Amino acid sequence: xxxxxxxxARALADAFAPGVMRREAEQLRQLIHxxxxxxxxFRPLTVEGRGVPDxxxxxxxxxxxxxxxxxxARLVIVGGGGTGKTVLLIRMxxxxxxLRRPGEAVPYRLSAADxxxxxxxxxxxxxxxxxxxxLSSGExxxxxxxxxxxxxxxGLDEMxxxxxxxxxxxxxxxxxxxxxxxEGRPAPxxxxxRDGTHQRASATDGQPATPTVVMAALDADRIRRCVSGLPGxxxxxxxxxxxxxxxxxxxxxxxxxxxxLAVVTALYEERDDAGGHMRDPSDLIRTxxxxxxxxxxxxxxxxxxxxxxxxxxEARRISGMLSELAAYLVDNQALQRRAGGEPxxxxxxxxxxxxxxxxxxxxxxxxxxxxxxxxMPAAFVVWWVLGRMNWTVELDxxxxxxxxxxxxxxxxxSLAWWPHPKRIALGRLRTRVGRARLAMTLPGALALxxxxxxxxxxxxxxxxxxxxxxxxxxxxxxxxRDTADSRLLVLTGTATGLLLGLLGRVLVGSLGTAGGLxxxxxxxxxxxxxxxxxxxxxxxxxxxxxRNPVFxxxxxxxxxTGLVSGTSTAAVTAALLALLPGLVASPLQIAVAxxxxxxxxxxxxxxxxxxxxxxxxxxxxxxxxxRLGAALEHSYRSGLLRRAGIAYQFRHLELRxxxxxxxxx
Length: 665
Known about the structure:
Blueprint: H1 2-31, E1 41-44, E2 58-59, H2 63-68, E3 74-79, H3 85-99, E4 106-111, H4 121-132, H5 137-145, E5 149-154, H6 168-179, E6 181-182, E7 185-186, E8 189-194, H7 195-205, E9 212-216, H8 220-228, H9 237-245, H10 250-255, H11 258-268, H12 283-286, H13 294-307, H14 312-335, E10 338-339, E11 342-343, H15 362-374, H16 376-388, H17 393-414, H18 432-453, H19 458-478, H20 486-508, H21 513-535, H22 553-579, H23 587-606, H24 608-619, H25 628-638, E12 641-644, E13 647-650, H26 653-664
Parallel strand pairs: 3-8, 3-9, 4-5, 5-8
Antiparallel strand pairs: 1-2, 1-9, 6-7, 10-11, 12-13
Helix pairs in contact: 1-3, 4-5, 6-7, 11-13, 14-26, 15-17, 15-23, 15-24, 16-17, 16-23, 17-20, 17-21, 17-23, 18-19, 18-20, 19-20, 19-21, 20-21, 21-22, 22-23, 22-24
C-alpha cells in the first residue's frame, strides 16, 4: 500500500513539474517588465570563524550548481531590497527543474509573509499549494508528506513589521526550517530575506550555520552591459562616463541596485506621442533625489500605467485604488491585524478575501442585510400562497417553518468570518469521485424511502425521496471538493434528510406530492449545507477549493453557482406550485413566483462570497472601483503588480510603501 502511494506521489510530482515551470516563466516575465536584462550575481557570505569562501561574484546562472553542492541541500539567500533575490530564486527553480529526474522533488516558491508559524510548515505548505497551484488539498498533502516539494521560501523579512527589533516570526520560521527532517535527515529548503532581518534573526536563532549567499551589487561594467541592450543606448554615454569617473559615487550606488536601475530605464526610455524621449538620462547626474523617493516612483508608476494604455482618468482611478490597497496592507503589517483568528495579509491581495479593508464587521453585517433583502421575494411568495390556500393553522405554521429554515441559515453564514467560495464543476460527473458520490446517494435514498413508507402517504414519500436524492446527490457530486470525505457527506446528509423527511410528513404530508417536493428540495439544500459543514471540519479536508480558479474567478464562480442553483430552484418551485392542490394561479403568476424564489435561494442563500464582495464594494464606494478585478488585472499588465498563486502583490515593497504614503497625504 505504501509502495503504491509512493508511486502515485511520484507520478503526481512528474505531472506537476511542467506547470511550475510555466508559472515561474510567467513570474520572471512580469518581474523584468519594461526592464533590461540584468546579470544579477551573488557571493558566498563570509562568516567569521567559519572559513572564508570564494569572495568573487558568481553570475546568477550559477546559483543552481552552488545549491546542489551545499550540505543537506539547504541554502539561505540574503540581500537588500530590490537586489534581485526573487529573480535569483526563479532562476534557481528553472535550473533545478531542468536537472530534475523523474520522481524527484519539485521546487515550489511560496511567499512566507502569510505563514502563521504556529500551524506548522507542512500544513502551511499544503494550504499554499492547494490555494495557489490547482492541486486538491489531498494531492498537495500527499506531495508534501512524501517530501516531493522542495520549499523555496521568499520574503521571510515580510513576516514581521519592518522596524521590529526582534523579528519573532522570521526567527520562528528559521527554527522550523532547521528542525524539519525527512527520514531522519535534515530536510532541504531554500529561503530568501533581507540582510537586516537575517542578522537579527540569526543572532537569536541558535541553529547550526546554513550555507548563505549574499546578493551582489551591480558594478559599473554590469550596468554598462544592461544599458547597452536598450534601443537608444547612445543617449546614456554621459551616465556611463560618470560611472567610469566615480565608480563609488552617488549615482553608481543608486544604479547598483537592480530595482533602481529598472525604475531609471523605464523612466528615461519613455516616449511621448511623437515618438521622442520624454527625459534626458544626463539629468541623473545633476539630480540629488534618491531613486526610492516619492518623485521618481510616482513618475515610474504613471509611466507604467501610460505604457499599459490607461488614459489620465483611468490612471488616476487605478492609482487611487492602489493607494487604498497599499495603506490597508501596511496597516495590517504595522498593527498585526487579525480577523476571524487569521492574520490579515500585508503582501498578498486576494480578491475574495479583501473585504476586511472596510472593517471586520461592516461587510459581514451588510452581507447579512443583503441576504435578508434578497429573501423578500421568497417571503412574498409564501405569503401569497398561504393567502390563497384554505389550510389549517397547523399546516400554515408548518409551511412557514419550512420556509424560514433557509433564510435563517443564510443569516448565520452571512455573518461568518470567511465565506467559502463555491463552484459547480460539471466535468466532475466524468470523474471517479463524482460518479461514486452519485452512486452513494442511492442506498441513503432507499433507506429514507423505507422509513417514510411506514408512515403512509406514498405520494409524499416518492416525491420527497426523488427530489432529495437528485438535489443532494448533484450537490455533493458537482459542488463539493474531492478532499471532503464522501462517506461522511452521505451519512450526514442522509441523517439530516431523515429528520427533515419525518418533520415534513407531520407538517405538510397532507399536501401529497407537492408537500414531498417542497420538503425534499428544501431538505436536500439544508442537508447539503450540514454535510459540507461537518466534512470540512475534518483536518484532511481543509483548506482549499476544488481545482482552484484564480483571482476574480472565485467571486465569479460563486455567483455562477448561485445562478445555477437559483435556476434549478425556480424550476422545482414552478412544478411545486403547479402540483399544489387548490392553488388557483395563472402560468404567469406561477412563473413570476418561481423566479422570485429562485432569486432568493440562488443569491440570498448560495452565493455567500459574492454577497460579501458586493458588500465590500458598497462600503468602499469611491475608494475601490466597481470592476475591481479588471483594475487589478490592468495594474498587473502594466507591471505595477505581480502574481503569486491566487494573489496579486506589489512588484516591490517600495512601490507598496509609496502608494501607502500617497494615501496618507
